[in-house]
Automatic annotation (TrEMBL):
InterPro entries: VPS16, Vps16_C, Vps16_C_sf, Vps16_N, WD40/YVTN_repeat-like_dom_sf. Essential for vacuolar protein sorting. Required for vacuole biogenesis, stability and to maintain vacuole morphology. This is Probable vacuolar protein sorting-associated protein 16 homolog. It comes from the Eukaryota. One of its GO terms (molecular function) is actin binding. Gene3D superfamilies: Vps16, C-terminal region, YVTN repeat-like/Quinoprotein amine dehydrogenase. One of its GO terms (cellular component) is HOPS complex. It comes from Ascobolus immersus RN42.
Length: 830
């Protein structure tokens, strides 16, 4: 039914209007509750109500004993869930911004209920709370502060990773009463840590993590302290029935009001947004403005004042009301005598419905401000709760934008969609009295989450589709998880129902549903569901958790993702005995190859065990050989070489390799003896380099012994001796060798070459003729060592006159030329 006036219920406090909106009536009609016996907490943004009866004595309830519980309701009074409670006296009941319920007991235990269905995590505060107890608790959006029995303060700033932290000691004796206290959330402090205001005796202490500051006040004691939602102002209620509003740093006083209730002090004091202070007595609520002008509301029973971001909820008996400052845009349009463009536009739509020509006059009057008027009407519709006036404002906006030649209707369409959603969730069956500001802060995605926590899956899906949100997969998965948890049907039927519902939806992952089934002890159902998960990266971790190791490994191999396969293999290696691990890997070539490659790089012991288990003794031997070559001590190296030789000797195909390694081991032993005798480094030189080093150092005896033991061929040894003589420049030894030996195992050409390269023509000349060869080769050798006359002699001897003429040019002096001419003439005379 439409309201006769949009300003019904508005009341003026100084220069601003306030309104009290009746959200729901008839709460708990079937089972009336005496709210004076309950501790009540309301989640922000129109969230759930939590009620805990402070009178813990069991009472008869419909013929049975009612057990203690924490009862969750929607704001319209519809029950959500009854949480059994047997953990002692509750000292703190609060909500986080994401609708997690926090319950703190007198002995310092904390339960965090993650949803509205009873799932929770638990931790303890510590710091002696099990002895001294918890006296009281104050919450903010993501944390809380607990006041202990010995007047200490413990803060928890996160619920996902709770780390209770003791604040600075206010050093207030246990017997000294703390009259009241409040907190300033970290977002509004300079230190970005929570601050606590303690009312002790007549002053206020400010406590943070590191220090305590006494504000040296004498107006106390203060029975109530309340900090504004934006953290800028603090309201103080004194025993003398006065309310002060001061800055949070206590440097400025903004107002002082005498309440004057004849010695009856309020039960609670909170802020209504950041604009005014609300005081609550047992059956009365007063709103204080800066100059003391108050609105008074009277009730028949206990009223609970529950603050939200843009106002306060008033819960009493069977109704819930919302008290807030009238938004400026509504006040601008609806206040009596308003001439704002939006107000004129609203009047125009009224005239249009009456078919009055005055509608056109109104439009012409605000023609220049028409875009502004349209925008104001759209915005005002969001803040209006009455559906009739929502429609009127949107009609006015639609009429105004139809007159404009160019206007972007996106904002109009968005507001229309938003209002449909808001009106739907405000319906008593859902019971979420969201305001427009709360909706913007909450976001549609978070609204969907809250509906899911209430098991409103179909409703959430319709909103998601209507707002074009990408939350449909999340809704279906949440529904499937609840189906797994609570359905009593056979597992095959549950699986079939879930698959039929989810398989038609793109982007659905069955992994979360399967994990839920596994956590609920339904392993067979979990395995069935995982068969429908298309992504191996989602399947495999859960299969491992379910100890379905073989299936997990096969799924990883099928995916072709080497990282995933290695993840499974490393998990199995840690979990299984080595022999069993190899039995799992061996039949799977891909897994075997990855393990072999990984072990080759990082774990040689595993590689050796792998080869041993697979009877690949030769491959294992080569691994030991690599270790031997990398050993930093000779005994270890020799031991590993010995083991390598033994492993290779067992195979006829590797006997040559075994003999070579055995010989290498003997060489190392020989080199070790040389180092000990000659005090010179020989280890790890090759056989030829060892012999060469000995010959260079003129240790012929040891060199000959090395040649004999390791059967160095004569050709190799002769060449090594030649290089050693050249290195030592031992030319006489070379001459003596050429004289004593008619032949050389390597021939005489290497002797000539080495000597020519060493620039020793005289010694090299001894080997020119020994080298033999064609006349042309002998001429080149003579020419190479600078003996051109000898080259000419060879040319003359064979009658190669062309060569003689070429060589004449290279003669060094006249004497050589005359000698060559004489030899030529002599040859020709013959």
């Amino acid at each position: 039914m439409a309201s006769s006036s949009p300003t019904d219920g508005w009341e003026l406090v100084e220069n601003h209007f306030y309104r009290k909106i009746q959200s729901y009536t008839g709460l708990w009609e079937e089972d009336p509750l005496d709210l004076s016996e309950y501790l009540v907490a309301a989640a922000p943004y129109g969230g759930a109500l939590a009620l805990y009866r402070t009178d813990t004595e069991p009472r008869a309830y419909r013929g049975t004993q009612q057990k203690p519980s924490i009862d969750l309701y929607t704001c319209s009074g519809k029950p959500i869930r009854k949480l059994p409670w047997d953990k002692g006296v509750v000292k703190g009941l609060g909500w986080s911004d994401d609708e997690k319920l926090l319950v703190i007991t007198a002995d310092g235990k904390v339960r965090c209920y993650h949803d509205l269905q009873g799932d929770f995590s638990q931790f303890t505060l510590g710091y002696g709370t099990e002895t001294h107890g918890v006296r009281d608790v104050r919450f903010w959006s993501s944390g809380f502060v607990a006041l202990t029995g010995d007047n200490r303060l413990i803060a928890v700033s996160r619920y996902d990773e709770p780390r209770p932290r003791l604040l600075a000691d206010p050093e207030v004796p246990q017997e000294t009463p703390i009259h009241s206290w409040a907190i300033v959330p970290p977002a509004y402090t300079l230190s970005r840590h929570v601050e606590v205001f303690l009312a002790v005796e007549k002053t206020i202490y400010i406590v943070d993590q590191t220090e305590v500051q006494n504000q040296m006040m004498d107006q106390g004691p203060f029975l109530h302290i309340s900090v504004s939602p934006n953290g800028n102002l603090t309201a103080l209620y004194s025993e003398s029935e006065r309310v002060w509003v001061v800055s949070t740093d206590f440097q400025n006083k903004w107002s002082e009001v005498d309440v004057g209730m004849g010695g009856t002090h309020p039960i609670d004091m909170v802020w209504c947004s950041n604009d005014s202070v609300v005081l609550a007595w047992q059956d009365e609520v007063q709103m204080m403005g800066p100059n003391g002008i108050a609105l008074r509301y009277f009730y028949d029973d206990r009223v609970h004042v529950l603050p939200d971001v843009d106002g306060v909820k008033l819960l009493s008996g069977g109704k819930l009301e919302f008290l807030q400052k009238v938004p400026d845009i509504l006040e601008e349009i609806f206040r009596i005598g308003s001439t704002s463009p939006a107000s004129v536009l609203l009047d125009a739509i009224d005239q249009l419905e009456k078919e009055s020509p005055k509608a056109d006059d109104d439009i012409q009057l605000i023609r220049q401000q028409l875009p502004e008027a349209v925008n104001s009407c759209i915005q005002a519709a969001g803040y209006e709760f009455n559906v009739h006036w929502q429609k009127q404002l949107l009609k006015a906006a639609s009429f105004g934008k139809s007159v404009l030649e160019l206007y972007n209707s996106d904002e109009f369409v968005e507001m229309t969609e938003t209002l449909r959603v808001l009106n739907a969730v405000r319906y008593y069956e859902v019971g979420m009295p969201l305001t427009y500001d709360q909706y913007l802060r909450l976001t549609p995605e978070k609204l969907i989450e809250r509906l899911l926590n209430r098991q409103q899956h179909l409703f959430a899906l319709r909103i998601s589709e209507y707002l074009h949100l990408a939350t449909a997969p999340k809704i279906y998965i949440h529904w499937a998880c609840l189906k797994v948890r609570h359905s009593s049907l056979p597992e095959d039927e549950i699986c079939r129902t879930i698959v039929d519902k989810l398989s038609s939806q793109p982007g659905i992952s069955f992994e979360e549903v399967a994990r839920t089934a596994f956590n609920e002890g339904r392993g067979h159902l979990a395995t069935q569901l995982l068969n429908y998960e298309p992504r191996a990266g989602k399947q495999v971790p859960l299969l491992l958790s379910m100890e379905e190791d073989d299936i997990a490994l096969d799924k990883a191999i099928e995916s072709g993702d080497t990282d995933l396969i290695q993840f499974v293999l490393m998990h199995l290696k840690k979990k299984l005995p080595l022999a069993q691990f190899f039995r799992v890997v061996n039949p799977r070539p891909v897994a075997y190859s990855l393990i072999e490659s990984e072990a080759r790089q990082d774990d040689r012991e595993l590689l050796k065990d792998l080869y041993y288990q697979d009877d690949r003794r030769a491959d294992g031997a080569y691994v030991v050989l690599e270790e031997a070559l990398m050993a930093d001590e000779l005994p270890k190296e020799l031991d590993k070489l010995s083991l390598t030789t033994k492993l290779l000797s067992d195979s006829k195909l590797h006997l040559v390799d075994a003999a070579a390694i055995s010989e290498f081991s003997a060489l190392l032993t020989f080199q070790e003896n040389l180092e000990r005798i000659l005090a010179s480094p020989y280890l790890h030189l090759s056989l030829n380099d060892t012999a060469l080093q000995l010959l260079k150092q003129n240790h012929s005896t040891q060199a000959n012994k090395l040649k004999s033991e390791f059967k160095i061929p004569d050709t190799t040894y002769t060449y090594l001796r030649l290089r050693a003589w050249i290195h030592r420049r031992d030319w006489p030894a070379i001459e003596e060798y050429s004289i004593k030996n008619k032949k050389s195992p390597i021939g005489w050409v290497p002797f000539f070459e080495e000597l020519a390269n060493a620039k020793q023509p005289k010694v090299a000349a001894l080997f020119v003729e020994k080298c033999g060869g064609a006349p042309r080769e002998r001429m080149e050798r003579w020419e190479r060592i600078g003996m051109v006359v000898e080259a000419c002699k060879v040319a003359i001897q064979v009658g190669d006159w062309a060569a003689v003429e070429e060589l004449k040019v290279k003669l060094k002096n006249e004497g050589e030329r005359r000698e060559v001419e004489r030899l030529v003439e002599g040859k020709k005379r013959r």
